[in-house]
Amino acid sequence: MSSVYDNKGKSFTPVVHTIATPVIIQTPTNRIKGNLHLREAERIKDVLNASEDYIAVTDAIVMDGDGIAKIYQTQFLALNRTNVIWVIEDSAKQPNS
Fold this sequence. Notes:
Elements lengths: L3 E2 L5 E2 L5 E9 L3 E10 L4 H5 L5 E11 L5 E11 L5 E4 L8
């Protein structure tokens, strides 16, 4: 992998290291289980307050509004943030729980 250096010697790489955080997201019509990818020292709140219109969710399972029936499953989902009602960490998927 190649790196680019600025005139002060700072290294820039094309890879952004993130931590996959299991979450449950409620929308007006569906509940989504999947992963938000947070940068180091970033919180879920920071992702929600970012200026982008869409939130990236990986390993997404789209369920009915009550979270009972599975409707669709995909490796990537771009969710318009205006449709987010609430987000919680999915503690059932957390390691060592």
